[in-house]
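HUMAN: Quick job: go over this next protein and say how the chain folds.
***
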Amino acid sequence: MEIITDKTLPACLWMQAGVVAKKRCYHNFSCTTCRFDRAMRGVCNNNLELLGNGVKLISKKQKFVFWREKLRGQPLYNRPCIHHMKGCIGYKNCPKQYYCIDCEFDQYFHDQFKVHTFVKPVEFTDIYGVSLPSGYYLHVGHAWVKIEDNNYVRVGIDDFASRLLGVFDSIEVPLTGKEVSQGVPLLKAWQGDNFVKFKSPVSGVVTESNPVIRTSCSIVNKAPYTDGWIMRVHCKNLKKDLKNLLFMNNSIDFMKQEMENLMTVLENETGLMAADGGTLGNDLYGSVPGLFWNKLIRRFIK
């Protein structure tokens, strides 16, 4: 198993700007849900208030400034675009002093590239052949959540479910504008006469669906965490929803337990003894005789 450490995580924007010496990002640059970012902004706002009242700032804490302000004081060649800082693009300067609302490239990026560039996990952990990306949240019903900016998230089906059930023939996705609720069936996927319902990992409004899914569901099996995303959702109470999801070590522990349970099912239902160090193939249901679709759904797609 590949172990995730701080060194494998990207540097926080505050660290990249040189405001703090050492801080890694655990939230995939979703600053709105980050307690550290909230605390730093509070300190910086307080420092501005002190300056406005004519107080001389002396302590190290009082010298903190917003990361954007820190970078605005740098020459153009040393002001990286925020999309580069987040690891979405190669190096590009910021000519707009980090006023992204006035930036044509920022608008172009969101219109043309966001679908493709958000899906770049920092690191994967391998659990008996099943992958888990660092920074993604996981629902116990095997749907994942990838946080974006401004309370938007991407939703998909995890690697375990896609390997367990194989390639789907079709996936029914809610229409844009549809309200969804955490823990309520959201996606209905078909394989022949069999179907499975995946529960929504978050509550919110569907704002976009992956057009590739309509013509090629196999992408979910091939790239469940990247090009195989299912939909984009705007969540009004994202912080509350995230408390009910698994993250980082909790996700890893959960997936280990699921794999152990699966090995037990294989031995009990098919007589197949799971060898130590074995991995899960791409279509367990379709390749192992003796497995029953409904039993797998009830046991694993909770």
Remarks:
- The chain has a mean pLDDT of 86.
- The first strand starts at residue 124 and ends at 127.
- Residues 204 and 252 are 26 Å apart (CA to CA).
